[in-house]
Amino acid sequence: MAGQGARSRSQHQRRKRIVQAAAALASRGGIEAMQMRTVSERAGVALGTLYRYFPSKMDLVVAVVSEELDLLEGSIERRPPRAGSAPDRAVEVLMRATRGLMREPELAEALIRSLLLSDVKTDFGERMSELLLRTASGPPEDISAEDPRRLVARALSGIWTMEMIELLRGNATAEEIQSRLEITAARLLIDP
Questions:
Q1: pLDDT tens across 46-55, in order?
Q2: Which residue numbers delimit the DNA-binding region (predicted)?
Q3: pLDDT digits (tens, 9 = 90+) for 105-131
Q4: What's the pLDDT score for residue 78?
Q5: Can you give the three-state secondary structure of 100-115, one letter per residue?
Q6: How far is CA 130 from CA 2, 102, 126, 169, in A?
Q7: Could you read off the pLDDT of 44-80 as tens digits, one per residue?
Q8: Closest by CA position to 175, among listed 165, 163, 187
Q9: What does the pLDDT read at residue 120?
Q10: Which DSSP helix (H) or strand (E) runs through 178?
Q11: For labeling, which of 26, 104, 146, 178 is most exposed (least CB within 10 Å)?
């Protein structure tokens, strides 16, 4: 039993090294730089091991997206939004996500592009929606499935994704995005 726990820990650490290596490569050269052989070499694992964890490059990209969401969620838990209204709290979360992603623009572009082009199932939209719902309206488990706030959180998450594309293309500034998100959130989200 103790051996199984150590093996599980070792597998978790190996998977984490792979994801970190992929993210580092993507941050320097976008998704094109995430060649499976290069990722395996950088992570210090055999190519076969890499494919056992991630059967395709897009599976690996989805894992990097998930890791970035984990970091954002951890940041929000440690420092919850302080704004008073639901729309302001939601915008604060989205702008923190924007600033976090834009620290590594090539990684951000790779992640956003993968969300749009990948056939691999990802829970990005759902996780962002739940995060917005939790920060704007309270614990998601306390909000029924039929509550319109769930749809609004999903819509706001989608709008933010499209705004990120505009930012990455150079068609908008972070300030312009924040202004548009503030207007959108104020019209969509209401305090209960």
A1: 999 999 999 9
A2: 35-54
A3: 877 787 777 777 666 677 788 888 889
A4: 92
A5: HHHCCHHHHHHHHHHH
A6: 36, 22, 6, 27
A7: 999 999 999 999 888 888 888 888 888 889 999 999 8
A8: 163
A9: 64
A10: helix 174-188
A11: 146
Biggest CA pair distance of the chain? 55
- Two structure tokens written together for 117: 């082009």
User: Is the CB of residue 174 less than 8 Å from the CB of residue 102?
Assistant: yes
Which tokens hold the place of 77? 């838990």
> Degrees (nearest 5) of the Cα angle 84, 87, 88?
50
Q: Residue 34: helix, strand or coil by DSSP?
A: coil
Place of tokens 């890499």: 50
CB under 8 Å to 177, separation ≥6 — which residues? 95, 98, 163, 164, 166, 167
Beta carbons of 68 and 98 less than 8 angstroms apart: no
